[in-house]
Amino acid sequence: MHLSRSTPHDLLDVQDRLRAYLQATTSLEAAAAACVRSLHGEFSESIVLARLFVSLPFATLPEALRRKAWDVVETQALHGFVNDRTPILTLLGTYGREPAWCDRNASAHHAAIPLCSQSFVDTIPMIARMLQEMGVDLGLGGSGGGGGGGGGGNEDKHVSRILGSGWTGLFYVDDARSARDEHGRRIIPAADFVERHGVRTVFGLGKAYANGSIATLIVFTNAIVPRNKVMDLAAVITLFKAATMDHLQNGAIFDA
User: Fold this and answer.
1) Which end of the chain has a smaller Cβ tally under 10 Å, C or N?
2) How far apart are the first and last CA of the chain?
3) Residue 225 C-beta-side C-alpha neighbours within 13 Å
4) Is residue 154 predicted with pLDDT exceeding 50?
5) Where are the domains positioned within the chain?
């Protein structure tokens, strides 16, 4: 099925199949993998790559992901802005046309992104624009604020600024080849990836959990997909959240 030509009836069928896959999972990671694998299978003609991230506190990550997050901290000199509660945008599910895109452990640069400094987030055009367009304010200052040694206030900001659990965020880039941010930078900076795979519309759908964690589905397509068609897919991220609330609450985040 081609995403841009799907009908409302098609999307309802997709949701029904996805719901069955999600209900069979026992962890947040397994659910994220099932979600992106299912979407890619349904729309393989148009989806180049689908990824699902969840923002998780640094302390909850397994050692391998903490190391990847800490590599970013050391490279960007963010040591003073990170503590156990710092939200890490964590890649939990990935599926695409290349074998390496189907294994979250193979991601070198996007496995664990610390959301601890606005100035750092601003250096990643896609993430910065995604958070901005989704209306997410993590309460970060100009150079920090998501970590540091200053008590528990930062976690409270992260939770209180998510706009409530009924919110659904939308990130939309009409054409990845030409879209630029206010600084003139490509919003999708991986020009080689965009050109080699014919990436056009890129979109993200976000949903917040009651504890402030955010689930974000990002999809790279090879066609221009109208914004209204993307909005029709918003039910997918709502379905994902509903199916995984218990996983998150019970600490069933990663596969054993």
Assistant:
1) C
2) 34
3) 30
4) no
5) 3-249
